[in-house]
């Protein structure tokens, strides 16, 4: 009997509901949302720092200038190759933008992905390589240091203690909030970060320092998948030169562009899969179709690097001997049984030749070697 009454009252409720919908019409926004879902529409490109905040400072260049140049190139490639994607910048000139405003720009744009571009610096000039961060609690002191450095820009903002609820960028205790936080976009952010790191390593010949987690305020305040890219170390001479060069910036920007394109394809393929219920779709196949051949045309297909060889040794040298004492940027590779040591790196033969004259003042029999996509090749085969 009780059960019967409940059934009746449910029936009444449904009737009233149907009548109500009939009178006010079907909610429009539900339809509109379904219509748009599944497509990657907007990306925010965030060039770190700017204006009175130079970011990391190298010998010749500042982080704010390098990251702006790379960010603008990424946007340019996106607009040219993927005109259906809306590109939103947090800055396009040398201006100071507070962290919370950057996040607000992304949230207002309802972006599908937030890409913050930075460059690193550290006291040890021998450390180099690219790394990409997602929001989380740091697993090492090293990661905490990067987050501290990037977050400390808020002290240049007026009223930062109120705006960031008393967050002190330099106090490790402040970072406890990142432990309690739930990052609902973690998987997608890691996926984007991994694509970027893979591109940097395989297509730009960067040393891959990996995908890492740390507490970045700018990522915390954005409500979408997001990554913070550290292009390289301005404290390492050869990496500074690479990032300061036009070639270096083109390579880095194309890698980030391709990563966003791949992320978009995966995102859409996955959503199509969900929408086409019961109808098995091959994600890989979809991605093939959605990747037009022509988008590859303008990008450097192969990465050429010239370096200057200054020493070779049958055993691995420590960082306290030989070439490490003579040069501040030493890179080594293994060739059969030998460890070979180089200094300097450039995509231009002309540039490396200029450097060779300087290096020969210290090591008279040093010479130029060449790498194509990370493989040693004869200099003559890649010299323009
Ligand atoms: Zn930075």
From TrEMBL:
Stretches assigned to the MurNAc-LAA domain: 103-261
A GO term for molecular function: N-acetylmuramoyl-L-alanine amidase activity
Keywords from the UniProt entry: Hydrolase
Catalytic activity: Hydrolyzes the link between N-acetylmuramoyl residues and L-amino acid residues in certain cell-wall glycopeptides
SUPFAM superfamilies cross-referenced by the UniProt entry: Zn-dependent exopeptidases
Coiled coil, from the record: none
Enzyme Commission number(s) of this protein: 3.5.1.28
Gene3D superfamilies for this protein: Zn-dependent exopeptidases (3.40.630.40)
An individual GO BP term: peptidoglycan catabolic process
One Pfam family linked to the record: Amidase_3
Top-rank EC class of the record's enzyme: hydrolase
CDD domains: MurNAc-LAA
InterPro entries for the chain: MurNAc-LAA_cat, N-acetylmuramoyl_amidase_3
GO CC annotation: outer membrane-bounded periplasmic space
Superkingdom: Bacteria
Name the record gives this protein: N-acetylmuramoyl-L-alanine amidase
């Amino acid at each position: 009997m009780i059960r019967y009454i409940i059934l009746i009252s449910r029936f009444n409720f449904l009737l009233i509901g149907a009548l109500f919908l009939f009178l006010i019409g079907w909610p429009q926004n539900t339809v509109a949302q379904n219509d748009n879902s599944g497509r990657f529409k907007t990306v925010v490109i965030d060039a770190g720092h700017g204006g009175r905040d130079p970011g990391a400072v190298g010998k010749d260049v500042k982080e704010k200038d390098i990251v702006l140049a790379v960010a603008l190139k990424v946007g340019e490639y996106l607009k040219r190759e993927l005109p259906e994607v809306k590109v939103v910048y947090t800055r396009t000139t040398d201006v100071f933008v507070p962290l919370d405003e950057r996040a607000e720009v992304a949230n207002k744009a309802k972006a599908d992905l937030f890409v913050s571009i930075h460059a690193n610096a550290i006291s040890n000039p021998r450390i180099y390589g690219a790394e990409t961060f997602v929001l989380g609690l740091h697993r090492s002191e090293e990661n905490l240091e990067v987050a501290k450095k990037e977050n400390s820009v808020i002290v240049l903002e007026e009223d930062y203690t109120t705006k960031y609820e008393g967050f002190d960028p330099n106090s490790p205790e402040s970072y406890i909030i990142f432990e309690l936080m739930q990052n609902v976009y973690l998987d997608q952010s890691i996926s984007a970060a991994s694509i970027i790191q893979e591109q940097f390593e395989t297509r730009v010949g960067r040393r891959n320092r990996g995908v890492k987690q740390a507490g970045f305020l700018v990522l915390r305040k954005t409500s979408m998948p997001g990554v913070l890219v550290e292009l390289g170390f301005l404290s390492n001479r050869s990496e500074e030169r690479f990032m300061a060069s036009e070639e270096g910036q083109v390579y880095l920007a194309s890698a980030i562009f391709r990563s966003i394109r791949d992320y978009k394809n995966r995102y859409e393929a996955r959503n199509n899969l969900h929408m086409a219920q019961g109808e098995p779709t091959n994600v890989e196949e979809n991605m093939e179709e959605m990747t037009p051949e022509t988008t590859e045309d303008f990008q450097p297909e192969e990465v050429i690097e010239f370096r200057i060889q200054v020493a070779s040794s049958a055993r691995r040298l420590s960082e306290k001997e030989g070439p490490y004492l003579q040069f501040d940027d030493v890179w080594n590779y293994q060739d059969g049984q030998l460890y070979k040591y180089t200094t300097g790196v450039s995509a231009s033969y002309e540039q490396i030749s200029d450097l060779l004259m300087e290096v020969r003042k210290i090591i008279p029999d040093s010479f130029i070697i060449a790498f194509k996509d990370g493989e040693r090749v004869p200099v003559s085969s890649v010299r323009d």
